[in-house]
Amino acid sequence: MTANSRYRSRAPRSDDGEEKDYVGFATLPNQVHRKSVKKGFDFTLMVAGESGLGKSTLVNSLFLTDLHKDRKLLNAEERISQTVEIMKHTVDIEEKGVKLKLTIVDTPGFGDAVNNTECWRAVTDYIDQQFEHYFRDESGLNRKNIQDNRVHCCLYFIPPFGHGLRPVDIEFMKALQDKVNVVPLIAKADCLTPSEIKKLKERLREEIDKYGIKIYQFPDCDSDEDEEFKRQDKELKESTPFAVIGSNTVVEARGQRVRGRLYPWGIVEVENPAHCDFVKLRTILIRTHMHDLKDITSDCHYENYRAQCIQTMTRMRCFYLQRERVLFYVGRRVSFSQVW
Ligand code: GDP
After folding, report:
1. In degrees, to the nearest 5, what angle opens at C-alpha 132 toward C-alphas 130 and 135?
2. Phi, psi at residue 298, to the nearest 5°?
3. Which helix (H) or strand (E) holds 180?
4. pTM above 0.70, yes or no
5. Listing from the earlier edge strand, what are the strands of the sheet with 256-263?
6. What is the C-alpha to C-alpha distance for residues 216 and 182, in angstroms, rounded to an integer?
7. Which of 193, 243, 274, 307 is the least crowded, having the fewest Cβ atoms under 10 Å away?
């Protein structure tokens, strides 16, 4: 867009070439677009689930970047004694001039111990800490350069081997549901046949309902959207929890180089909708709902945290005020009795 066209964009002209009834606020979206692109975007994604479920591989497949180059894999003995750690990786990626600062928060050690009681605590503490930093920065003097590290989405990996949710899955999602947008996934979906995936999805949906777990809800699409968009939106919603496959290798399938897993009996293609829901997950996470995930983080989860903080601060202030008043009166009575 040239500077001139930006100034004149979409000005309707009458037959004699004059601009008629045109104020110019129709260019507002262009201004917002330019400003946002210049500023760049950020997104923080958390991945959780026990080790070996393919979290790192899926993130690499999603963003086509190797975020876990220097990862040290622990042996069984080390894993037993390991506590849940939080690890953060940040990469700056650029696509067609649009910059994205992507932060991946990994939770190694989650669900790996023999006793997993309250193993979600480290994760909820981390999310709260990010809210606390933001709250402090936002209430401070220099509000211009606030670093926003709030977690916008948590991909929770459910093993494909069980018959539904395990107690640790229920506890984890319930502990996180009011703090972050939880998106449950069926990991390593290539271990299941299509009918097994269908059955497991139904079971998981039933259990999510039964235990009152609040997972990320796709917003309803606007009534003026076109029919094709509405159909895709419905299909996306019906496919949850997404059954995903990840791969770090490129293989040859049907004369094309694709990301996939090569087995003696054939190839599983990560981006083939007939094989898994990877493309659907990528669509909601990056192409259609990234902004909504950020909005809900800011407008619901952070607002809840902020309201709680303010309530606690107000209660504490009342308590100290009352205590000071009591001390003042006690002090006056003491000095009064001393005079007499
Ligand atoms: P993480 O510990 O959860 O980060 O798991 P990794 O991404 O390191 O994967 C553990 C192992 O599972 C590796 O050998 C991967 O190649 C393999 N893996 C990753 N994704 C899949 C998948 O979708 N299907 C299958 N069958 N194996 C996978």
Report:
1. 110
2. -75, -45
3. none
4. yes
5. 250-253, 256-263, 266-269
6. 5
7. 274
Please state whether 33 falls in left (phi above 0), alpha (psi between -120 and 50) or beta.
alpha
| Closest atom, ligand 1, to C-alpha of 247 | 20
55 lines ligand 1 (CB under 6 A): yes
Q: List, as one string, the DSSP characters of 247-300.
A: -S-EEEETTEEEEEEEETTEEEETT-TTT-SHHHHHIIIIIISHHHHHHHIIII
CB of 54 within 6 A of ligand 1: the answer is: yes
The alpha carbon of 217 is separated from its chain's Cα centroid by a whole number of angstroms, namely: 12
Which residues, 6 or more positions from 11, have their beta carbon under 8 angstroms from its beta carbon? 19, 22, 24
Q: Is the CB of 246 under 6 A from ligand 1?
A: yes
Tens of pLDDT, residues 151-203: 999 999 999 998 889 988 999 999 999 999 999 999 999 999 999 999 999 99
User: Is the C-beta atom of 62 inside 6 A of ligand 1?
Assistant: no
Tell me the pLDDT tens digit for each residue of 84-93: 578 888 888 8
Closest CA to 157 of 260, 300, 293, 45: 45
The closest-lying atom of ligand 1 relative to the alpha carbon of residue 244 is 23
Find the 187 Cα to ligand 1 centroid distance in Å: 9
The whole-angstrom separation of Cα 230 and Cα 208 is 25
Residue 148 has pLDDT above 50, yes or no: yes
Establish whether residue 109 lines the binding site of ligand 1, counting it when its CB lies within 6 angstroms of any ligand atom.
Answer: no
Rounded distance, CA 255 to CA 251, Å?
10
Residues 6+ apart with CB under 8 A from 223: none
Residue type (1 letter), 104: I
User: Which residue's alpha carbon is at the smallest distance from atom 12 of ligand 1?
Assistant: 54
Q: Is the CB of 53 under 6 A from ligand 1?
A: yes
Q: Ligand 1, residues 46, 51, 57, 197: which to mutate, most atoms within 8 A of Cβ?
A: 57
3-state class (DSSP) for residue 304: helix
Question: 90: which DSSP letter?
Answer: E
The minimum-distance atom of ligand 1 relative to the CA of 106 is 4
